[in-house]
Amino acid sequence: MSASQKLGNTTFHGLDAVRLTLPDGSTAVISAFGAQALSWVPAGGGERLYLSPQANFGGSVPIRGGVPVIFPQFSERGPLPKHGFARTATWTLEEWREQPEAEEGGFACAVYSLTADDASRALWPHDFRAELTVALTRDRLDIELEVENPGSEPLEFTGGLHTYLRVKEVENVTLTGLHGSRRQLPGSQETKVETGPELMVDDEVDQVYLDVPRPLLLKDGRQALAIASEGFPDVVVWNPWEHRCASLKDMPANGFRHMLCVEAVAVGEPVVVAPGASWWGRQTLVTLDA
């Protein structure tokens, strides 16, 4: 029986999707469009990813929320469309596994792949194979991006996981763990060492932190989320705040109050993958009691 038959080809807002479910009630939903995690509900808890109620699910523009995959270009730091093309490509479901008998409440994962084709080569003339794995366990979500270089020349890219986290009220949350990293000044290559013990959001923020040395902790009232990454050396923190949010047609006017993007990225230095080699980066989210 194929993965798609076993899953029953569920849909999410009309898009082909996989719904992972564990015996303890944990769930995650991943869309084939963009290989994008759109929902994560830990056991006994509420939704932890922010998905805009005005997001466009037409399959031609990026979905506002969840965890978009940014590849092979971060933001507008290069000649490609903003954030590259992976988030608006339809990925192939390669594997689905569910092990309800696994320790600590079970395990489930879905694996998607994306390879170079005529459309990608028209924008970025390189061969590649990308694989996105979403793994669900009790109180934990792991998202891993692997990029293989089947070509004969080095493959160079920037990118990451543009994670939208749902919060009750963004002005009341704190993010710790950025102390000691280098903060890139907006519109400049200059950096400044972050000396603050914690980050609070009370205005628009779009900040790149380079070489973040430790895991992060997001506190939101009685809830807390540990955020760790491997392979991705940098972190982006983003919230559009009131005025920028009002200009986004796929966000409600008050949407900024209920989200904070904490992104695992590689932007300070491009990733370089040698011919025949591969690279991977992972972001791990774990729910905690604050």
UniProtKB/TrEMBL annotation:
CDD domains registered for this protein in UniProt: D-hex-6-P-epi_like
Family matches, as SUPFAM superfamilies: Galactose mutarotase-like
Coiled-coil blocks: none
EC code: 5.1.3.15
Keywords, sorted A to Z: Isomerase
InterPro entries for this protein: Aldose_1/G6P_1-epimerase, G6P_1-epimerase, Gal_mutarotase_sf_dom, GH-type_carb-bd
Reactions it catalyzes: alpha-D-glucose 6-phosphate = beta-D-glucose 6-phosphate
Family named by the database record: Belongs to the glucose-6-phosphate 1-epimerase family.
Name the record gives this protein: Putative glucose-6-phosphate 1-epimerase
Organism: Azospira oryzae
Lineage, top ranks: Bacteria, Pseudomonadati, Pseudomonadota, Betaproteobacteria, Rhodocyclales
